[in-house]
Structure formats: C-alpha cells, structure tokens
Specification:
CATH topology: Rossmann fold
Number of helices: 5
Order of helices and strands: HEHHEHEH
Helix content: 40-55%
Strand content: 5-15%
CATH superfamily: P-loop containing nucleotide triphosphate hydrolases
Number of domains: 1
Distance between the termini: 18 Å
Structural class: alpha/beta
C-alpha cells in the first residue's frame, strides 16, 4: 500500500502539492506541528494562527489553479481526536471547490473508524 502510494505521488502533475504524513501516532499538537512544517508555516503560536496561515496558503494555491492534497498513510492508527481535526481541515473550500483534498489510507479497520457518525464526512 505504501509503495503504491509513493509511486502514485511521484507521478502526480507538478501543479499538485502533496503533504504526506506517515506517522499516525501523533497527538493533536504534534499533528499541527507536522502540518505547519509540511506547509512551511513558521509564524504561529496557536492552532487558530496556524489555520489562518494554512488558509492563506491554500487560497493562494487555489487561485493560481494549483491543487493541494493531504495524504495520511496508516490512518487507521490516528486517534479519534486527530481524525476530528483532519475532518475539520476538509472545510477549507472556495465557492467552487475544496482547497484541500484529503486522502486517508490504512488497514481495513479504518473503514470501521470512519463509520462513526462524527467522522462520516471523511469518507
């Protein structure tokens, strides 16, 4: 699965930026620190600061016709708290499209986790 995922990422068009997370054992603060590093967001102190800066990055990329994809490998290992944060990231959108595409990959138990009512939006 991971090998196929990496193969696919290497073949994506240059207009697609991939933010790849492969460590599912992150706490919520660690998840946001990792996200900030992936998007080269340095000046933030709070989650709100980070989300504002991330929104600017995504809006700029979207306005230039560029796509942004967050891929989380081994997502079955994410805590429900981190999965909820991932779900909320899906709210970055313009009038016409999602500004952040989210791809979750993992073992079959991921399907069971995504069946929880609060997380169905991630399917």
């Amino acid at each position: 699965k991971t090998t196929i995922l990496r193969w696919m990422m290497q073949r994506l068009d240059r207009t697609v930026m991939v933010a790849y997370i492969f460590n599912p054992r992150l706490s919520v603060p660690e998840f946001y620190q990792h996200l900030a590093a992936l998007f080269d967001i340095q000046n933030w102190e709070t989650k709100s600061d980070l989300l504002i800066e991330l929104g600017k990055v995504l809006e700029t990329r979207h306005s230039r016709g560029l796509r942004t994809v967050l891929i989380i490998d081994e997502a079955h290992g994410l805590s429900p708290y981190v999965l909820e944060e991932v779900r909320l990231l899906g709210n970055f959108e313009s009038d016409t499209a999602k500004q952040l595409q989210i791809v979750l990959t993992g073992q079959p138990e991921l399907r069971n986790v995504l069946n929880y009512p609060d997380l169905r939006q991630l399917k």
